[in-house]
Amino acid sequence: MSMLEPTKTYIAAREITNLAPGETVEIDADDAVFPSPLSRAVAGDYEAQAVLDVAHTYSYSGRSPGDLESDVVALSAWDPEREAPPRLTLTRTVPEPPDPLSNLPDVVSALELLDFRSPVLSRFWGRETHMKAWVVLPPGYRSHAGERYPTVYFTHGFGGTLAGLRARYAPIFYQRMKSGEMPEMIWVLLDESSPTGTHEFADGVNNGPWGAALTTELIPHLESRYRMDGRVSGRFLQGHSSGGWATLWLQTAYPKIFGGTWSTSPDPSDFHAFSTVDLYAANANVYRRPDGSAQPMIRMHGAVLATAEQLAHMEAVLGDYGGQLASFEWVFSPRGPDGRPLPMFNRATGAVDPKVVAYWREHYDIAHRVETNWTTLAPDLHGKIHLYVGTDDTFYLDSAAHRLQSLLDRLHGQAQFTFIPGRTHFDLYQKGDDKYALFYEIAAEMYAVARPSSKSKTN
Questions:
Q1: For residue range 217-242, what is the model confidence (pLDDT) as tens digits?
Q2: What is the DSSP string of 35-73?
Q3: Beta strands 130-136 and 111-117: pairing type?
Q4: What distance in Å separates the CA atoms of residue 47 and residue 115, rounded to the nearest whole number?
């Protein structure tokens, strides 16, 4: 299955508890199914497979080691009107993947795993709650014992994991520092995944005070353990997508802590442009425009690939928590009577709940909060916001960025906005053949803030 091709694959699901070995489970493929009841599928050639989502993370990050799956069964010339769905047997366990850093011993030696028990989060949840990260030490860290280093707090987007941070980003940062393409800094790769999706380091009533835990507990702990430049001008933020929103939020919520954020393709910072939906409009609807046409949510160079309604229905089949839309509600919504966040919109009709949106606006609409509190924020926020987004962003995130830029320009906030022509959500960092080139430009800008007298190479 893929969000970029939502109707290509039929998905049928059922929540299972207390499943015993050898027990059979029947799934009604006309009930909890996407994109339509399987009985209405046209006759043709299909393939079928069963997956048991043991970790209950499929709607967030897909299959995980330890999940169970069947063989893929070919259904040639299958006619759902005449033939029963296949019987599938869970015969194997998804294995742990090979270590992607097995041939990179220098990167492994520069990595340290951080597993920090947060008192404030533990009090919120009533159980031990940990913050996890990978610390990437620069090549000269151990040989230059007297030097302190600027530190970048980097976090992933939706679907990212602690393992993914290590596999994907640690080699980029370490090897490019080693080659001299990036200045030497300490990178803290923060995991923002949770059972509910991404907590985005927001301080909320559903996921807990993650921003407070980061700024009052984790950062002081790190700065007592590593030779970090603990000045405001030595602490930076960077993240992409949901990580872009998280770092933009942290910079505006805690402007005295950080020396700047470089947020790329952030989730909507102004809920007038929640992808293609104005949540504040009268009779706002996530599924339908005022003229009744479908609200698009995913595009590729102008071509609509998926509507908001399709994504919501796909997510509902995969589970009632952990998906992207539900994750937004766990971050932004007030808590409902059942202990879960109130839904922002009706999943059957798409109708937006204006009371829930009013809560979103007062607490998490970054543009609204900045404008409302500008007198207080201005002295510590001037010149600290750097935002990059493609003009063809896959999720239409350039619209909210334009609105935030207009606001900060009007407030004389000295923010830097870069709209990269033709770039999507997935190729924003690419220059020429180097798909990570934007990292080098951003790192050089950060280093120039921390060390104004130094010259750093930028590709």
A1: 999 999 999 999 999 999 999 999 99
A2: SS-GGGSPSEEEEE--EE-TTS-HHHHS--TT-EEEPPE
A3: antiparallel
A4: 42
SS3 116: strand
> Each residue of 52-76: pLDDT tens digit?
999 899 999 999 999 999 999 999 9
Distances from the Cα of 245 to the Cα of 206, 303, 395, 400, 437, angstroms: 18, 25, 14, 11, 21
Return the pLDDT at 66: 95
Structure tokens at 199: 């907590």
Task: List domains and CATH numbers for the chain.
Answer: 11-93 (no CATH), 105-270+365-450 (3.40.50.1820), 272-362 (no CATH)
What amino acid occupies position 6? P
Q: Which residues contact 358 (CB under 8 A, 6 or more apart)?
A: none
Helix/strand/coil percent split, the chain, to 5:
30, 20, 45
CA distances from 3 to 312, 445, 455 (A): 11, 34, 43
> Rounded CA gap, 447 and 365, in Å?
30
Q: In this structure, what DSSP letter does residue 427 have?
A: S
**pLDDT given at position 21:** 83
Distance separating alpha carbons of residues 231 and 244, to the nearest angstrom: 22
The CA-atom distances, in angstroms, between 305 and each of 104, 108, 268, 327 are 38, 39, 19, 22
Q: Of 108, 90, 116, 360, which is closest to residue 249 (Cα–Cα)?
A: 360
CA distance 15 to 18: 10
